[in-house]
Amino acid sequence: MPQSIEEHTGKRIARARKTRHLNQRELADKSHVSYSTLTKVEQGAMPASPSVIGALARALSVPVSELTGQPYLDELRHDQLDGLIQPIREALDVYDLGPDPEVAPRGLAELHADAERLCTLVRATDLKTAAAELPTLIHEATATAYEAGSDQAWKILASTYRTAYDVTTKLGYADLCTVALDRLEWAAQRGSDAVLSGMRQYMRALVYLRAAQYGTGQRLIRLGMSAMEQAEASRERDVVTGQLHLGAAVLSARSKDGDAADNHLAEAERIAKRTGEAIETHWLAFGPANVGVHKVSTLAERDLYPEAVAASKDLTLPEDWPPSRLAHHHAEVARAQLWMGRTKDSFGSLQKARKVAPQQTRYHPMVRETYAGLAHVRRNMPETFTGFGTWLGV
Fold this sequence. Notes:
about 75% helix, mainly alpha, globular, 434 Repressor (Amino-terminal Domain), disordered N terminus
């Protein structure tokens, strides 16, 4: 059954704190989170920001997902998504067994088109369809990579592993997304693709960002930059390099290093002027629009909420921008608006996120945390507010 709205992140923090036999003052000191913030978060009076959740998770020696409650198994079962995870897990596990004699793969052109189609589904946040079709494609691509042995075949297989990372990340399976990234690197090396290796380091850095291990994330960004130096000059290399700078900007902002965040944003902006909008290049959606969205994100991560909301108003996003990125942006703006006390605007941003990417929004921890904060104040909320919570699963 859906979790109670009372089972918010603050409640989980309080439970973990008591398990560690710490009082609030001791946890505040250990985590370097202010006592006032901790008490308000535990009461549900204030939404916990990602940086606060990360600091508390480190102090309590628990995974961030234990405090956010991911994966949301009740909702996954309701949407019949939980049963799609095990076939993906099994497909990732046979990478080193050679071609399966029972699999008759299609030609490279068909496999490439199918791999691209699944990437498109993920960007459109049709996670259920992508997750259902992915295991068969991984098995086919694995057999083809072994039998053909060409760089293109290995790159197609790497693409399927990247989609496995995307799906499992969005559904909250942090352990499985790291396995997918390891497989991606394994295939990229066989495909002699330095750009794919650099992109994999960017994605690994995001895993550590979500786990609140910012130093490790920044080291991975540097490894990704090194990989890009080995790649031939191309628009593709520029796109991944620019995206690495955007990842570094968010990591720096989460670490409260505003100068470093601004420097990485400036470098990404310089590269974006050269590449233009490159939405489909490795499906990273890199370009001037993504730089602008990351500016909003870094301001919010530095607790500069009025500046973040103001920056969001200046953005003009392409009509064909991926719904997955647009929904995440709306969720970040909603959190900033809540911190400013603009509850109606905050709920409006959550509704925008749901409209453009319902499946992703339902499983987004920031959305749930923001909704819990809105539920605590409940000032002048429209009638649709309760229905949104029912749909969300709280």
